[in-house]
C-alpha cells in the first residue's frame, strides 16, 4: 500500500483505530497480535493463521484493514515497534478478580497509551485544516447527544472563551431545525464516539443537502459519520471490560479539543489572547 511505503505504521494504534470495522474473526487476530506481539513477530503467516484458528486469506484481509499489503513488512514493523517498550498492562483487560492495584495500573496504562496514540492518529494537516475551517465559518454549530453532549459543551466553552461565535445543541429537534436551515459557509461539528448515532447522521445528511460543511470528532475512521464528514479528528480507543460508556474515548476527545484550542489561539494571535483574558476577568467578577 502507498501508506505502507511512505512511513512505518504504528501497529497497535492502527489496530485499535480500525477495530470497530473488523469482523469477529479479524478481531480475534487483532486481540492475539496486541497481547502477544513478542510471539507474533516470529510466526509465519501459516502459523499465525493456525494459532488464531483462521486462514491465510483472512490474515491478509486483516492486514489490509490495518494498512499492510505484505505480511513480511508487517512482521518487520511489529518487531521494530517492540523496541519501544510497552507498559505491562497497556492493552490488558480488567478481570473480575483483579486487585485494586492491578485495576489502577491497567486503567492508567491503557489511558496513557491511548493519549500517546493521538500523535499518529491526527495529522498536522488535518488539525490545521480543522482549525482553519472553524475560523472561516460564517456560522458554527456543535452537535452531540448522550455523553457526547458534554464533550460538545466543552468545545463550545473553549471557543467562546476565544471570542468565537458558536452554538451548541443537544436537543434532537433543535439540531434538526438548524440542519434544515444550513447554508453555504455554515460549519457543523459533530461529536460522536461511535459515529453511528442516527440523530447525528440524519442531521449531517441534511447539512450536506443544504450546502453546509460537516466535520467530526469521533473514534472510528470507517464509521458512517466519518464517511459523511470532510475532516475527522480521531480518538483511538482500547476500551476495557468493566469500563463502561467509552470512557477512554471521552478523555481523548477532551485532549483533542485542548489541542484544537491551542492551535486556534495561536492562529488568532493577540485577538485570541485578549479574548481569553477578558473571559477570565468576566468569570472572576462572579466569584468572591
From TrEMBL:
InterPro entries: Homeodomain-like_sf, HTH_RpiR, RpiR-like, RpiR-like_SIS, SIS_dom, SIS_dom_sf, WH-like_DNA-bd_sf. SUPFAM superfamilies: Homeodomain-like, SIS domain. One of its GO terms (molecular function) is DNA-binding transcription factor activity. Pfam families: HTH_6, SIS. Keywords: DNA-binding, Transcription, Transcription regulation. It comes from the Bacteria. The keyword Transcription regulation applies. This is RpiR family transcriptional regulator. It comes from Marispirochaeta aestuarii. The lineage of its organism: Bacteria, Pseudomonadati, Spirochaetota, Spirochaetia, Spirochaetales.
Amino acid at each position: 500500500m502507498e501508506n505502507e511505503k511512505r512511513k512505518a505504521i504504528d501497529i497497535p494504534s492502527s489496530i485499535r483505530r480500525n477495530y470497530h470495522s473488523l469482523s469477529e474473526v479479524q478481531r480475534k487476530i487483532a486481540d492475539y497480535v496486541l497481547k502477544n506481539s513478542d510471539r507474533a513477530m516470529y510466526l509465519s503467516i501459516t502459523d499465525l493463521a493456525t494459532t488464531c484458528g483462521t486462514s491465510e486469506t483472512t490474515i491478509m484481509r486483516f492486514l489490509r484493514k490495518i494498512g499492510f499489503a505484505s505480511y513480511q513488512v508487517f512482521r518487520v514493523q511489529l518487531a521494530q515497534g517492540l523496541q519501544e517498550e510497552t507498559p505491562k498492562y497497556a492493552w490488558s483487560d480488567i478481570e473480575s478478580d483483579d486487585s485494586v492495584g492491578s485495576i489502577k495500573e491497567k486503567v492508567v496504562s491503557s489511558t496513557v497509551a491511548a493519549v500517546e496514540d493521538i500523535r499518529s492518529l491526527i495529522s498536522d494537516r488535518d488539525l490545521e485544516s480543522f482549525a482553519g475551517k472553524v475560523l472561516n465559518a460564517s456560522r458554527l454549530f456543535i452537535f452531540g447527544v448522550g455523553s457526547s453532549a458534554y464533550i460538545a459543551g466543552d468545545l463550545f466553552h473553549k471557543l467562546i472563551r476565544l471570542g468565537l461565535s458558536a452554538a451548541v445543541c443537544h436537543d434532537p429537534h433543535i439540531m434538526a431545525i438548524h440542519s434544515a436551515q444550513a447554508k453555504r459557509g455554515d460549519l457543523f461539528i459533530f461529536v460522536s464516539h461511535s459515529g453511528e448515532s442516527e440523530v447525528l447522521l440524519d442531521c449531517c445528511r441534511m447539512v450536506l443537502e443544504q450546502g453546509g460543511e460537516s466535520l467530526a470528532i469521533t473514534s472510528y475512521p470507517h464509521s458512517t459519520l466519518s464517511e459523511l464528514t470532510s475532516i475527522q479528528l480521531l480518538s483511538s480507543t482500547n476500551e476495557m471490560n468493566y469500563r463502561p460508556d467509552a470512557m477512554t474515548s471521552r478523555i481523548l476527545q477532551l485532549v483533542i479539543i485542548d489541542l484544537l484550542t491551542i492551535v486556534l489561539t495561536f492562529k488568532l494571535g493577540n485577538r485570541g489572547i485578549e479574548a481569553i483574558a477578558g473571559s477570565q476577568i468576566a468569570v472572576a467578577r462572579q466569584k468572591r
